Fold:
Amino acid sequence: EIINEPEWVMTAFPYWQTSKIANERFVTFVRSTALFIKARATQPVTVGSATLSDLHYWSNCDLDFLQFHHYPATKAKKLVSTPVANLGYKIPVILGEFPTGNTRIDANVFIDQMHSNGYLGALAWSFRASDKYSNLAKQETAISAWIKLHPVGKP
Structure:
């Protein structure tokens, strides 16, 4: 991962009052960095995009896959319902972060939603973090149950 959630400091995003970096400059940095890494390593290259709607910034940056993070309102059961095919990207897309704490949605529901909509995968947040969105131990049973229902190589 080149960088995690760069959108928070880009000029198009009014979320934080910090010094902003021009969108075009950040996109150029990501593309240049991806090309630099690919010339010297074999590991896949991506960016941890803050949201699904921000993926378009990174879609032409020579990445191996796109990833976004999704933290729905804790009181609502809002999931990503857009099929990956409808996004129009030519490379795979994964859900790079979803909450395991401070959520009413079990991990297996997040994973199943991504799977049924054609996403390449879904990664739970977080194994070691101690923020309010992390409680992997609480979700371990749900994740294990999903894995048992979907063995590797089986749809």
